[in-house]
Amino acid sequence: MAPAPRRHLLQIQGMERPEIDALLDLAESYVLLNRTGKTPRDLLRGRTLINLFFEDSTRTRTSFELAGKRLGADVLNMSVSTSSVNKGETLLDTAATLNAMHCDLLVVRHDQSGAPHLLAQKVEASVVNAGDGTHEHPTQALLDALTIRRRRGRIEGLTVAICGDIMHSRVARSNIHLLTGMGASVRLVGPPTLLPSAIERLGVTVFHDMAAGLAGVDVVMMLRLQKERMAKGLVPSAREFFRFYGLDEAKLALAAPHALVMHPGPMNRGVEIASDVADDPIRSVIREQVEMGVAVRMAVLDRLTRAALGNA
Ligand code: NCD
After folding, report:
1. Which residue's alpha carbon is at the smallest distance from atom 3 of ligand 1?
2. How confident is the model at residue 38 (pLDDT cuts 50, 70, 90)?
3. Residue among 292, 273, 293 at smallest CA distance from 283
4. How far away, in angstroms, is 226 Cα from ligand 1 center?
5. CB burial class (10 A; 0-12, 13-18, 19+) of residue 56?
6. What is the pTM of this model?
């Protein structure tokens, strides 16, 4: 018997390949609908989506907002700085408030790993994790996968290097689960201070040297140095970091000639990536990632809504 359709999207870990393929196929159809302006605006009519963001965000929040609106939902952005959370309201009180508002879809970003999981147990809405602490950011990995699949036609058999601040990156963790699960080889490249110990258990290969780590790879995925989560002293200086681990033309030349350059944003230009590489019109797919983000989030909202209605 097929598993029951999922009500929440909390993490990539544990998702099976057919489920990911189906989400990517649906997202692919939304890319085309978005480009032609023919999105089904009645799919989420009468539904309420609340964006509950306890951390800063530009791309993720706005793309969930756009995705919800394009499908006809009423979208509300709950800004934490003006909400009762700053007055000491607990996450569970917030959940009770959201239940009373009869929200259908709740998109949560929180600095504590596991916060969306806790909310999912307490709210009646479908919960989407939009990034929890250093744990996971499932829609980012899905949009990265869609970008790769559209450019390369597949994920299986590719070699992807994820570089930089792996330690603090929920993007890296979701991508490791997704890419290894879909049959890609994943390399992690970064200084020992920014790599969690025993990460090899997730089926990845670790490199501390960019030249070795980038040799022949099909995709170079750069990560932001997440200073806000970092204890002092993990990185000597931004200049030094760029010299050894920043992606510039010389280091990129070591990857396969067709290698794609990716970054989830926001970028620190001149720290983890050189501006000319980030803006390279042929190799960088950073803007395409943003476009795919809207399509992927539409697919996720579509799927979860149908699952909640029982007609997935
Ligand atoms: C990422 C995040 O918030 O985890 N950003 C994003 O969603 N595009 C990565 C980051 O903040 O560096």
Report:
1. 131
2. very high
3. 273
4. 9
5. exposed
6. 0.96
